[in-house]
Each structure stands twice: as structure tokens, then as C-alpha cells.
Amino acid sequence: MPISKQRNKHIQQVLVEAAKLAPRYSHELALVREKEIQRGNSNRVTLAVARKMVAYMLAVERRKQDFIPAEEMTGKAVA
Questions:
Q1: What is the residue extent of each domain of the chain?
Q2: Which of 2, 23, 24, 40 is a Cys-bridge partner for 33, taking CB atoms 3.0 to 4.6 Å apart?
Q3: Are 52 and 36 in contact (CB under 8 A)?
Q4: What tens digit of pLDDT does each residue of 15-44 get?
């Protein structure tokens, strides 16, 4: 979907910078990044990761729970 023109430019800038770093720390976001890299456009890669991060933030807000990465969830199930 296209990016809205009604946005907070400062939040967008922070989100884009975070999306560039996030795949280093999250396996799930690294998978999103790899999938988009196959398609080609590097800007699209960053936007896909940023959108996934926003989806995570919205889910945390709606559920009123802390975010727990999948890596930690699987670690608790095994332990």
C-alpha cells in the first residue's frame, strides 16, 4: 500500500532508520528483509520491514502486553 501523505515526518524518519537496523536483531524481520531483497528494490525492503515493525507495535498496543520476540517464546517452550 502507498505511504500516506498525512504523516509525522520525524516519526517516519526514526522508523526508517530503525527498519534498517532491526533485521540484525530480529530473525523474523531478517526473513521479511530477505524476501523483499529477492524482489529487488532496496527502498521497498526498508518499507516492508518498517511496516512489519508498525504491525508489531499496533499489536502490542491493542493487546496491552509487552512484546516478546519469537526467539524468546520458543526458548521458553523448550526449557
A1: 9-78
A2: 23
A3: no
A4: 999 999 999 998 999 999 999 999 988 889
Cell numbers at 23, concatenated? 533485521
**Helices 27-39 and 70-78, axial angle in degrees (round to 10):** 130
| 3-class secondary structure, 26 | coil
Q: How many CB atoms lie within 10 A of CB 13?
A: 10
* CA atoms of 25 and 23, how far apart (whole Å): 5
Contact of 49 with 23, CB cutoff 8 Å: yes
Give the separation between CA 22 and CA 25, rounded to whole angstroms.
Answer: 5
Q: What is the pTM of this model?
A: 0.75
